Structures are given as structure tokens and as C-alpha cells.
Here is the input.
Amino acid sequence: MQLRKPKRDDRLEVEVERIDERGQGVGRALHESGEYRVALRRALPGERVAAQVLRRRGDRIEGRLLEVLRASEERSTPPCGHYGACGGCSLQDLAYSGQLRAKRELVELALANAGLHVPVEPVLGAASPLRYRNKMDFTFGTRRWVEVGEAEGATRDFALGLHPREQFRKVLDIERCEIQPQAFDRILATARRLALEQALPAWDLVKHEGLLRHVVLRTSVATGEILVQITTSSEAPELVQPYVAALLAAHPEITTLVQAINSRGATVAYGERELVLHGPGSIRERLAGLVYRVSAASFFQTNTAQAERLVEVVLEETAPAAHERGLDLYCGAGTLTLPLARRCAHVHGVELVEAAVADGRRNAEENGLGNVEFSAGDVLAWFESKGALECDFVVVDPPRAGLHAKVVELLARVPARRLVYVSCHIGSAARDLAALAPHGWNVTRVRPVDLFPQTPHVETVLTLERVS
Ligand SMILES: C[S@@+](CC[C@H](N)C(=O)[O-])C[C@H]1O[C@@H](n2cnc3c(N)ncnc32)[C@H](O)[C@@H]1O
Here is the structure.
């Protein structure tokens, strides 16, 4: 007789073992029909929990936490009032020490799954696991997320905040975000109040109409300067200028304000056109002893304090000698390129986004570094256009998808002694490093750095040396 398998709404008891890359607890449940892998939010390693079955595929179940039957000693009260509804920061139930351990295990597991058995060092944790972000991007919307038990009467067709979990058409009003500076909470509240007072229409994410689309806030840890970007669907100066004037009057701490115009459907904060409405259009940040000019559209690491440590780790692992030449692939605006260039003879950075390359060149010039060269373009196309390359070290810092298989093949043949892979998605990095192994590149050191406390994301610096 075939035993009935778990189905929707059944209750199961789960022994939670680890955190997965989405920040869910993952564990095992014993059922009369066999053993199942269950993933559910807000369940922590070491806990025994009761779960409601939401979906089952084979022996994998997605569940919802009903009750914690045996709590972890590291279970802690989430600091954020929006936790649960908001789509971000899914590790807030777990004490910071537990978050760091969970991230280290994520790295170990991804490497082991790719056949790479190499010790992973403890994650370099942040001194401030809250209020650490130097940039936030908030969305205006016409469908406000309404909380259960919320008082009647509040506006429902206007919101300024973040998308709730898996609800990309709705927007949750954010009053306080615990990972951004308090100054951002205040500016965000004023931006919302003024838009309502001046009856400016929010962008409708479904009908593609309305004016106000995004508020991007950026600040510099070193100088305290604040950049605000307001993204609108058209220029509309008769509406935008009074709005901006009132925002600046309420917040003299805003040092520059930019309007970005995006008339397209895609919900991205950067625009087709930018108008600098106040100040210089950029802020100045200091990182690893260098000064960077950060404009509204430039990529810049969002956790300044931890980016400083990331740069230190990359420098230690690359260990460039004064006479050496290096490559920095996927270099952005040069956050790693410039500190490397201060230590060696020459660094060549390659980056797809032209604006980032322009920022990189300007940053190199302003810091008096003449031994840096930037190329704008796709790394693969750049590699293919090159004949024999001469370099002593290579740093790669690709986006989440990792390296193109052909880039891996080309990298395998680069005549360098050291390769440092900076990864924001360890699964992709593990795949790429496993593909490099048969070419004589061995992983010798794995050093994760926590750039994103409260979230399951982990940055990892992996050092490779050529064995043959
Ligand atoms: C994780 S960021 C690294 C930036 C830089 N290393 C830093 O720390 O600021 C990845 C960069 O790769 C760039 N990129 C993405 N795809 C690329 C490609 N095919 N070729 C060159 N650069 C690319 C992105 O624009 C982005 O700046």
C-alpha cells in the first residue's frame, strides 16, 4: 500500500539544520511516507519547529513557520518594525554571531558541492551590523501594502518605500529602515509628506502613468555629504521644482539633488537623462585612503566600513610587488583598481558600463595615479581582442552570475601567478573555480567578508595559485 505523502496545510515537525542562500531555515521532517527537506522562513539552525506545508515537489517542501518548539539560543528580537512584511533583511531573527556562522556554512557548502574541499575562514563581521548602508533606493507606488490590523482611513493609493516580499506591484511605506542612516529616515518621511501635500501622483507600476518613481539616497561616511536623486517619468519642472525646493528647505543637510528622468516601463531608478538641481551632482567618499567622487548613477560599494576591509583583504591576497602588473576585471569605478595601483607598477581595469569607467578615470586622476588604464567593454570581447597578455596577478569581481565559460577558459591561460576572485554569489564562484582547477589553478584561501548584515548575502575573497 502506498502511504499518503504530505500535502498542502499538513503540519510537520522540522529539525532545522542550516540557512539557505535566500535566508530560509532548511531542515528535515520525518513523515510516515519518508523523510522530507523542508525550507521555511524565520526558522533557525538548531531549532525544532512546527511547519505548515505550502508546496511539495518530490521530497522537497516549502513551509510556513507555525510554532517554534525548541528555540535556538541565538534567536533574537528583530530590530525592524517592518520585518516580516518587507522583502529585505531576512536574517533578523538570528543574533549577529549566528548570521556570521550561517554565512560561513553557506560558503563551505557551495564549495563542497562543487568538489572543492578547502577551509573557509570565519566571516569578517561588521562592527555595526545596523545603520550601515550608504545608499538606499525607495519606490513610489499607487498600491500601498496594507498591514493586517491597520487603522482605517489612511491613504491606500500612495506609498513611498520598499516592495513587500514577492509583491512587486505593491509598495510598503517605510517609516524607519534599520540598516540605513537615521538621516535617511527623516528625508524619506519628508519626501512622502510633501508629495502628498502637493498632490503629486506616484507612478503606477501596472498602468505606467504618474510622475514620481523613485527616491535614491546616498551619503558619504567621510564627509557626511548627502545626495538625493528623485526619479520622475517626465521633466515636469512646474511640479518638480516646488517639490524639490520644499525638500531642500526642510533638509539643509542635503548637499546635492539630482532629478533623473525615466519614461520607460522598467522600474529602475537611473534615468535616460539627469538634471542637477542643487549642488555639484556628486558626493566625495574616502575609501582605503583614496578619495572617490560618487555620482547618482555610479556603482559604489554600499557598506563603506566593510568595503574598507574588503579592499584590505584583496590587497593582502593579491600582495602586489612594486614591479608587478595586474588586471582588474569587472572593475566598476575602480574601488579595487586604484588601491592595487598604489602598490604596483600598473593595473588595467575592464568594465562594461561606460559611466563607471569615466568615473574610474576621473578618480585615478584626482588621486594622482598615472599607472592605471581603463577599458570600457565586455570582459569576454576584451579578452578575445587581446593577443598574448602579460600580467603578474588578476583580480576578478564579476556580477552574481559569475564568469562566462569562455572567460574561464581564457583566464586559465593567463600567465599570472595569482588570481583573486571576489564573489558576491558563492554558488557561481564555486562553479567557476571548479572549472579552473583542471588548468592548474588551486584555491588556497577563502575569506568571506560581511558586507550585508541582516541579509543572507555574503561576499567572499577566494585566492588561487597556479600549481604547474
Ligand atoms: C560586483 S561589481 C564590481 C565592481 C568593482 N570591483 C567594485 O568593487 O566597485 C561587478 C561589475 O561588473 C560589471 N560587469 C557586468 N558584466 C560585465 C561584463 N560582461 N564585462 C565587463 N564588466 C561587466 C558591472 O557593471 C559591475 O560594475
